[in-house]
Amino acid sequence: MPRLPRAKALILAAARDIVERDGAGALTFEELSRVSGVTRGGITYHFPTKDALLQGLLEHDMQQWKESEAACTPSNLPCPKQCELIGFIRSHTSEDESRRRFVAGMLSAAVHQPDLLDGCREEIRQRYLGSDWNDTELRAHVLRLAAVGLFWDEIFQFQSMPPEVRRRFTGLLEQLAREWVPAAGDPEPDTEQDKKRK
Question: How far is Cα of residue 142 from the mean position of the Cα atoms in its chain?
Fold first, then answer.
């Protein structure tokens, strides 16, 4: 990721701190100027409106998600698809209090301005563009959705599982990723329908 200009990086870091602490509703240019040390004119040079600032925050967060996923992706498995899937699972199930507070702080803005999430929607659309949705891809998607569900369980602090069970659950997701996504040249795992036919 190219390095951001210093003032823009300061603005985004301060804006994220405000959102984490008090939610997106508390993000005003005055408060941002106070926290970041950047003048209001400096802020509006990079982000002319609050919507542009929120969009910039989300874009920066998406880039951090990509970096987190890359850092969580193992490189020692025989199948790149297994590696990618496990990286996805690990990045979505890691317990990150800062991320939890940021996403929780952005929820009201996203609910009131659904178009703020257009960049996220496009990112997800691009990820799955060209998928043929065979049985292996469907199984992988089941695991992705389970990881995303655990992420939202954490965001809302439902704590549906005790910590030890949560660790076992994420371990099971990774185990299933290895079993359900075959390495190149390996046969597809049998579906329940295949087993019934045999």
Answer: 16
- Three-class SS of residue 187? coil
**In the chain, where the domains are located:** 6-185
pLDDT at 19 over 60: yes
CB atoms within 10 A of CB 113: 14
Question: What is the model's pLDDT at position 159?
Answer: 87
Residues 2-18, mean pLDDT to the nearest whole number = 88
Q: Is 38 helix (H, G, I), strand (E, B) or coil?
A: coil
pLDDT tens digits for 102-118?
999 999 999 999 999 99
For residues 80 and 87, give the distance between their C-alpha atoms in angstroms, rounded to a whole number.
10
pLDDT of residue 195 exceeding 60, the answer is no
Q: Is the dihedral of CA 113, 111, 32, 12 positive or negative?
A: negative
CA torsion sign, 52 to 96 to 146 to 87? positive
**Contact between residue 145 and residue 60 where contact means Cβ atoms under 8 Å apart:** no
Q: Report the run of H or E that residue 64 belongs to, with start and end.
A: helix 50-72
pLDDT tens digits, 142-178 = 999 999 999 999 999 998 899 999 999 999 999 999 9
Q: Which CATH class is domain 6-185?
A: mainly alpha
